[in-house]
Amino acid sequence: MLKVFSACAPLLFLLMLTYGCNVKSDVVYQSDHVGKVTYHYKDNDGCDLKEVDKNIALFYQQIKRRELVPLKAIYQEDDPFIQELTTLPSISIHKDKAEWYIPLAPSSQWIYVKSKGTINVFSYPESLKTLCK
């Protein structure tokens, strides 16, 4: 349990700095194949995640097939561009020592993955655009 909390702590801290202490987190999906999916939101301002496992499975297939192409630049966590991407509601996926961060606002254009201290940014996949309206 402590390992799970410590893995989520930096992201939760950044969200709490941005949105205050009203940030809530729920684990909405967990499997050996996809990993742990955590949903972050503020108060009651969230999304209907009935189809989350189907959409996350599609997203994970895109990762495995290398259909998502990262931007050429590599970022650090405190980069202003990355902080702009960190919005609520969002989903984070923890798998194989990497953390995928997916903002769920309808206007979202980017997602990112944090691994080994660096962050790669990817174009927003179409399979996730239906999670929030």
Proportion of strand residues: 35-45%
N to C succession of SSEs: HEEHEHEEEE
Structural domain count: 1
**With helices defined by DSSP (H or I, 4 residues minimum), what is the helix count?**
3
What overall form do the CA principal axes indicate?
Answer: globular
Work out the radius of gyration: 14 Å
Strand order of the largest sheet: 1-2-4-5-6-7-3
Uncertain spans: 1-6, 15-20
Helix residue percentage: 25-40%
Largest sheet: 7 strands, antiparallel
Distance between termini? 33 Å
- On the 0 to 100 scale, the average pLDDT is 77
Structural class: alpha+beta
Number of strands: 7
Tell me the layout of helices and strands.
Layout: H1 2-19, E1 23-31, E2 35-42, H2 52-64, E3 70-75, H3 80-85, E4 90-95, E5 98-103, E6 110-115, E7 118-123
Antiparallel strand pairs: 1-2, 2-4, 3-7, 4-5, 5-6, 6-7
What is shown here, in short?
The protein is α+β, with helices and mostly antiparallel strands and 133 residues long. It has helices at residues 2-19, 52-64, 80-85, and strands at 23-31, 35-42, 70-75, 90-95, 98-103, 110-115, 118-123.
